[in-house]
Amino acid sequence: MNNQSIIDEQRELWSSNPRDWAEIAEPENRKLFEELLDLTGVGPGTRFLDIACGSGYAAALAAARGANVTGVDIAPALLEIARERTPDATFVAGEMDALPFDDARFDVATAVNGFQFALDPKNAFAEAARVLVPGGRVAAATFAEPERNEGTALHLAMKALVEEPADDGYAPYSLSAPGGLERMLGPAGLRVERAGEVALAWAYPDTDTTIRALLASAGGARSARAVGEQAVREALVPAIEQFQDRSGAVAIRNVFRYVVAVKV
Prior knowledge:
Elements: H1 3-14, H2 18-25, H3 30-39, E1 47-51, H4 57-64, E2 68-73, H5 76-85, E3 90-93, E4 106-112, H6 121-130, E5 132-143, H7 151-159, E6 190-204, H8 207-215, H9 218-227, H10 229-241, E7 250-263
Parallel strand pairs: 1-2, 1-4, 2-3, 4-5
Antiparallel strand pairs: 5-7, 6-7
């Protein structure tokens, strides 16, 4: 695929099930969002940018702290929900590799599970640095290694249904190796201030809710487009069983790696 085809496909996939993403999937990462907002000192008057903001869940948390909030994402359907959540914020359609903002506009930028999907992650970090004021902070988070995330089993169950080209632009673990995020910082003019991990569990009341959350992701939408939603559901049911308790509730334990860096 060429770059424009990759962008167009990601825009389509992330717009497939926006309400389920906003209401079921995205809230499960609240612990991670809150940690990054704490570490970057987001509070009253902070000029805050959320890159790959999705349906604006993290942006709403930042707004509740008194920040002046801006979000950017490629999926118009998710941005519509973000605007509903935080009407006083600014949400813009745009790409991580070419942020539609002037230099030195923000105090803090965050990107949760975003930069690994950029056309060029190094360029995405450079763009985040460009729009920060000197001394501004960027916080980026991604999955830790696949084997440390129970969600990997579900991702692989869906991926097995799809014949994908090697350059399809879907790389959820491309920055997951130790030091993967840190290697992006120096060329972007960023200095590591802090690095760490956040463990959290995606908790759902039953199998159907879990499947809805997964289908709302780009990977789930791609699989459903390839083989139909029913086939994806049939593949996911046995994969989910290992994460269920006797009541049928599901808990999928994951580990996210993050860095907080300062613009030098």
